[in-house]
Design brief:
Blueprint: H1 2-12, E1 16-20, E2 23-26, H2 27-44, E3 50-54, H3 59-70, E4 74-78, H4 86-92, E5 97-100, E6 107-110, H5 118-126, E7 130-134, E8 144-148, H6 149-154, E9 164-166, H7 174-185, E10 189-191, H8 198-208, E11 212-215, H9 217-226, E12 239-242, H10 249-258, E13 263-266, E14 268-270, E15 274-280, E16 287-291, E17 295-300, E18 303-308, E19 314-315, E20 328-337, E21 340-346, E22 351-353, E23 356-358, H11 360-368, E24 373-383, E25 387-396, H12 402-416, E26 425-429
Parallel strand pairs: 1-10, 3-4, 3-5, 4-7, 9-10, 11-12, 12-13, 25-26
Antiparallel strand pairs: 1-2, 5-6, 7-8, 8-19, 14-15, 15-16, 16-21, 17-18, 18-20, 20-21, 22-23, 24-25
């Protein structure tokens, strides 16, 4: 599979493959870098080794990733965003080598370890390249999902339209990996950014005439609030895709109003399964069909389950989440309307208020309609009388007091939500409520207000 991709890239020749720090690298130039890494790996790294690859979507990092796949290695992408978790990730993935491929600062170091996990040994035995992805850990411990790269790459056998696509999702994220292979397999140009702020992203879109922006609802909300889209020429955009978390209806409505010429598409994917093909019922709708070749879906007790050809082999640091007949239990609660589904949120995050279910995304969407609310995370908190109560952490752009905001917010929420869904506690915070992946962080509970 990787040989087919590299041959196709050779056919694209002088076309731009990557835009990095203002300059473009052609497919020919990228293949030359791959050839350089190939020589290094042949001389130093045994085939099928477990290799941590520290990088981003720079030309050197992308070339190293493709060369490692060709060398049949099991690759563990690592970004600087993992911070203090790096040592734990290297240990849990049983890495045998660490390759730092940050542009212009490459280094290769062996680790005194021989991988022994049964799933790693399975891949080594069949001589297939692999991929280890760590979940964001926004609600708990990060899980290490091990993939066989062969079925993952099968999705890109058929080239599609060549587009200039922004690499917003990170190098160690299934969405980022999917974006890279989708773009390069079709002869498009992957536009990289080191600054993922609204201003930095809009500058890159304007400068490189980006056509496709794959991102998250949290980022899109920040983009709209920043008004950066009004300070830059974004007329080249044709498609915005969003996933990784539930999209608040309020944010989607405002996005549709701000970009009326752009198609909006909800995507669905998991570190454990890969990215599925999806189709929104209409622009501005949260109803979607997911699936496509290699995927089957079913809903059991209101929760989505998926069987995928590209599913991971399993976790390296957690029990298997698959049913006995091979279905992955996503924990996503959904509504069903014929062939369409609407994702309500993780069942494990549903708040039970006196027996009544509250979906955090619904409350968050209502709060985002309150003037001055930059971001919000809604969680449940234990309560002796009701079981749980609804708690909201809110980031404001105004300088009002908590008491002033609570009065104003409750007045609007009473018009939009049933009484049991209105937050009983509100905490004002002065920090971002999303992580490095621009996904809401729900792990910490709200403090007493």
């Amino acid at each position: 599979m990787i040989r087919t991709l590299l041959d196709r890239m050779a056919d694209y020749g002088p076309a731009p493959a990557l835009a990095w720090e203002g300059a473009e690298v052609s497919y020919t130039g990228l293949l030359e870098r791959i050839a350089g890494w190939r020589q290094v790996f042949e001389a130093k790294i045994p085939k099928s080794s477990v290799v941590a690859l520290v990088g981003d979507f720079s030309p050197d990092s992308v070339a190293a990733l493709l060369a490692l796949i060709e060398h049949r290695c099991i690759v563990v992408p690592i970004t600087t965003a993992v911070g203090s978790q790096r040592a734990a990730f290297l240990d849990q993935a049983e890495c045998e080598w660490v390759l730092d491929a940050l542009e212009g600062k490459s280094s290769l170091e062996g680790i005194d370890r021989t991988a022994g996990h049964s799933l790693l040994l399975k891949l080594k035995a069949i001589r297939h390249p692999g991929l280890v992805l760590f979940s964001s850990g926004s609600t708990g411990k990060s899980k290490a999902a091990l993939h066989d790269f062969v079925p993952l790459l099968m999705k890109f056998e058929q080239p599609r339209a060549a587009t200039r696509t922004l690499s917003f999702l990170l190098f160690d994220h299934i969405g980022g990996v999917n974006t890279m292979f989708h773009t390069l397999s079709s002869g498009g140009c992957l536009v990289t950014v080191s600054d993922r702020s609204p201003e930095g992203v809009c500058q890159a879109i304007e400068r490189h005439r980006v056509e496709v922006l794959p991102t998250s609802p949290s980022f899109l909300n920040l983009l709209l609030l920043s008004a950066a889209d009004r300070r830059h020429d974004l007329s080249s955009l044709k498609l915005i895709t969003y996933g990784t978390e539930v999209m608040p209806e309020r944010t989607l409505q405002r996005l549709h109003e701000a970009f009326p010429w752009v198609a909006l598409k909800q995507t669905y994917g998991l570190s454990e399964l890969g990215i599925m093909r999806s189709k929104s019922r209409e622009d501005g709708s949260l109803w979607v069909k997911v699936g496509g070749e290699g995927f089957e879906t079913r809903v059991v007790d209101g929760k989505l389950e998926i069987k995928a050809r590209s599913a991971m082999l399993g976790y390296l640091n957690a029990p298997s989440p698959f049913t006995a007949d091979g279905w992955f239990q996503t924990d996503d609660a959904v509504e069903v309307d014929g062939d369409w589904i609407k994702i309500l949120g993780r069942a494990s995050e549903i708040i039970n208020v006196g027996g009544q279910k509250v979906y955090p995304a619904e409350v968050e969407s209502a709060l985002l309609a309150v003037d001055g609310v930059v971001d919000v995370v809604v969680t449940g908190q234990r309560n002796d009388l009701l079981g749980q109560i609804v708690v909201a952490r809110v980031l404001l752009s105004t300088d009002e007091t908590l008491a002033e905001f609570r009065v104003r917010a409750r007045r609007l929420l009473k018009e939009r939500l049933e009484p049991f869904k209105i937050p009983q506690k509100i905490e004002l915070v002065a920090h971002d409520l999303h992580g490095a992946r621009f996904k809401k962080v729900r792990a910490s509970s709200a403090a007493e207000s």
